[in-house]
Design a protein that fits this description.
Elements (H helix, E strand, L loop, with lengths): L2 E6 L3 H10 L16 H13 L3 E5 L10 H21 L4 E5 L6 H14 L4 E5 L1 E2 L2 E2 L6 H10 L2 E5 L8 H4 L8 H15 L2 H4 L4 E4 L6 H4 L7 H16 L25 E2 L28
Parallel strand pairs: 1-2, 2-3, 3-4, 4-7, 7-8, 8-9
Antiparallel strand pairs: 5-6
Helix pairs in contact: 1-3, 3-4
Length: 294
C-alpha cells in the first residue's frame, strides 16, 4: 500500500480555535486545499491520480501550541477528535497523527495517551520547535520518554518560524529556505543530544529530506567532543534505520505499530499545496522504501 505521511488537514472550526489561542498565522492556512467539504473531495481525486491509497493526516505546522494551557488542550482535543472521526468514516483512505498541546508537558502526555489508546491514532505530530524552543530542551524529556515507552511514531515538520533568523524572515524565504533549515537544525539537535540513543523505540519521520541532513551526516564536526557525540548518536540513528524519503509518500503502517515498512527516520518532501503528493525515491540504501504490499 502506498501511504502519504505528509498530508495536512485544517478545517475552519479548528483554525478559529488556533486564532483564539493566539496563533498569528492560522488565517494563512485557510482555502489552501487542506480543508473539508469540497477541498476534501478534491484531495481524494488528487490521491487517486497520484496512486496514493491512504494519507496519514497531521495538523503541522498549525499545531495547538500556545501559552494558555486550557485553550491549547481544547484545540488539541478538538483536532484529534476531528481526525479520528474522519478516519473512522473513511478508514480506507485516512489515518491521523495526534496533535499535542505543547509546551504543556503533563497535558501533552495525557492527550498522547488519549489519542493513541482511545482514538487509535497512528502516532504523534510535532513541529521542529515549540514556540521557538528546541525539542531537546530538558523540559520536554517526559514527552520523548512517553513516546519511547509506547514505541510510537513521531512525525516532525517545520514550524514556519524562519529558523528564528531575520535573514530568512525579512526576505520572504520562510518556506523556501527556512523550512529545510528548520528540519536540519532539529534533526542535528536530536543527534547531538543523543535522543536516538536515549529513546531508541521512538520511530521518527522527518520532513523535506531532513533539510541538509544527508550532507551533514557525512561530515565530522570541528570539535573532538562534537565528533564523539555525532559518532555515538549517529550510529544509534543509523542502526535504527535512519533515512530520508523524497516525497509525500511513505510506508508507515496506519496503526503506527512496529514494522519493517517503517524506518527509524523517514522524510517526506514539501508539498507546495497541502494535498500534493509525489513519487518516492530513496536517498540512501538504508532509507525507508515505498513498496506495494497486500
Amino acid at each position: 500500500m502506498r501511504i502519504d505521511v505528509h498530508a495536512h488537514y485544517w478545517t475552519e472550526d479548528y483554525l478559529d480555535l488556533l486564532a483564539d489561542l493566539g496563533k498569528a498565522d492560522a488565517g494563512a492556512a485557510r482555502s489552501l486545499g487542506a480543508g473539508g467539504g469540497a477541498e476534501l473531495e478534491a484531495r481524494l481525486g488528487l490521491m487517486d491520480r497520484a496512486g496514493v491509497e491512504m494519507q496519514v493526516l497531521s495538523a503541522c505546522p498549525q499545531l495547538p501550541c500556545g501559552e494558555d494551557a486550557q485553550k491549547a488542550v481544547r484545540a488539541a482535543r478538538f483536532v484529534n477528535d476531528q481526525y479520528a472521526d474522519l478516519a473512522q468514516r473513511r478508514r480506507d483512505r485516512f489515518r491521523g497523527f495526534a496533535a499535542l498541546p505543547m509546551p504543556h508537558v503533563e497535558e501533552s502526555v495525557g492527550e498522547m495517551g488519549r489519542a493513541l489508546d482511545e482514538l487509535g491514532m497512528a502516532g504523534v505530530a510535532m513541529n521542529t520547535t515549540v514556540l521557538g524552543r528546541a525539542l531537546v530542551e530538558p523540559d520536554f524529556k517526559p514527552v520523548f520518554a512517553e513516546l519511547n515507552r509506547r514505541g510510537a511514531v513521531l512525525y516532525l515538520h517545520p514550524a514556519g518560524n524562519r529558523a528564528c533568523s531575520p535573514l530568512i524572515g525579512n526576505y520572504h524565504l520562510t518556506w523556501m529556505v527556512g523550512a529545510p533549515v528548520e528540519d536540519t537544525i532539529s534533526v542535528m539537535h536530536l543527534i547531538t543530544h543523543g535522543i536516538p540513543a536515549r529513546y531508541p523505540d521512538v520511530k521518527i519521520i522527518n520532513s523535506h529530506l531532513g533539510g541538509a541532513l544527508p550532507m551533514l551526516l557525512q561530515q565530522p564536526t570541528t570539535s573532538i567532543a562534537g565528533r564523539r557525540r555525532i559518532r555515538r548518536s549517529g550510529a544509534a540513528w543509523l542502526r535504527a534505520g535512519c533515512g530520508t524519503t523524497r516525497s509525500g509518500t511513505g510506508t508507515s503502517p496506519p496503526s503506527g505499530a512496529r514494522s519493517s515498512h517503517l524506518a527509524r527516520t523517514g522524510s517526506s518532501s514539501e508539498p507546495t499545496s497541502p494535498t500534493k503528493t509525489g513519487t518516492y525515491s530513496s536517498a540512501r540504501s538504508i532509507t525507508s522504501r515505498t513498496r506495494r504490499s497486500t
